[in-house]
Design brief:
Layout (H helix, E strand, L loop, with lengths): L6 E7 L2 E9 L40 E6 L2 E5 L1 H5 L8 E3 L2 E3 L9 E9 L5 H14 L2 E8 L2 E10 L2 E7 L9 H4 L9 H14 L11 H14 L18 H21 L40
């Protein structure tokens, strides 16, 4: 089944326009999620929308948006009034300018999306816009309306498509000064830097996301599997942080620990890591349970829902 687009509209560069669809490039649906239950009955908790003054439940069709002016005063804004705030970016991403990728502060990045031609028409115009951005080695900046909010979006080529990254506005980014002002100015000696560089060189590698494992997610799955199997769950000892008394001594010991760890790694066979969620031990729709989790009649069926 083809993925569902979050937004459909048009991409425009001056007089060149093409229909496009925008899809989320990331997903949280594979993560373990929990429902809230009544401890006494085991039933799920249901939330109701209650009038703060009368205490009565309010139907969805009677709920409107309101802007808080003061403690007891709100300005009511209807759905129709919000729809009348006509922004061109509601249906069209207009490319306003081109900038160097290095100029975009990482703090402004929110989330990535994939942009593709929508339908059979417009592939030629889409390719022209994509290859123009690629040829100029720039990032295209435009605007798009998602969930009733206008966002800045940065577009850059990715294979045959475009990747669009939503950006924050300046008022959404906090100044670092209020956090960093109290950090002491410390003189780092050359010997310390040399030792630290040696540690960095020992840990040097390449960014390969498939090597990363969500250890907390794996621990959650293990916990659920043990409880389903009726096994006891014991708390693991947490590592304790220790105060560094002699920084030079700590750096020297780190180099020794790194060498020992490197030898240990080469002695072990590399563990295969599958793409997506790792080592799914519990039965989940579309996935086969591992041998540990198989049970003829599990006591309680673990449920999953999209995040």
């Amino acid at each position: 089944m083809a993925p569902r687009a979050n937004w459909k509209g048009f991409l425009r560069l001056s007089l060149v326009t093409c229909p496009i669809a925008l899809y989320p490039a990331t997903s949280e649906s594979e993560k373990v999620s929990f429902n809230q239950l009544n401890r006494k009955t085991g039933h799920r908790i249901k939330y109701a929308k209650i009038d703060a003054d009368t205490g009565e439940e309010v139907a969805n069709e009677d709920i409107v948006k309101g802007y808080k002016v003061d403690t007891d005063t709100f300005i009511e804004v209807t759905k129709e009034e919000l729809e009348n705030v006509a922004l061109e970016s509601t249906r069209t991403i207009e490319i306003d300018e081109f900038v160097d990728r290095s100029e975009i502060d990482p703090r402004y990045l929110i989330r990535p999306y994939y942009l593709c031609p929508d339908g059979k028409v417009g592939h030629d115009a889409f390719a022209v816009i994509r290859e123009t951005i690629r040829e100029m080695n720039k990032v295209a900046i435009g605007r798009v309306v998602l969930t009733n909010r206008e966002h800045i979006i940065a577009l850059e080529p990715m294979d045959k498509g475009l990747m669009g990254t939503l950006l924050r506005y300046p008022y959404e980014v906090r100044s670092a000064d209020e956090y960093f002002d109290e950090i002491q100015d410390v003189k780092v000696t050359k010997d310390m830097l040399d030792l630290a560089r040696h540690i960095v060189n020992q840990k040097a590698g390449h960014f390969e996301p498939n090597k990363f494992e969500d250890q907390y997610e794996t621990a959650l799955i293990d916990l659920i599997n043990k409880k389903r199997a009726g096994k006891s769950v014991t708390a693991k000892a947490r590592p304790r942080g220790e105060n560094v008394v002699d920084l030079m001594d700590a750096l020297r010991k780190s180099i020794g620990d790194e060498k020992a760890a490197k030898v240990s790694k080469t002695a072990k066979k590399p563990r295969k890591v599958a793409s997506g969620q790792k080592e799914m031990l519990m039965p989940i729709a579309g996935k086969k349970p591992a041998k540990e989790a198989t049970a003829k009649k599990p006591a309680a069926k673990a449920q999953r829902k999209s995040a």
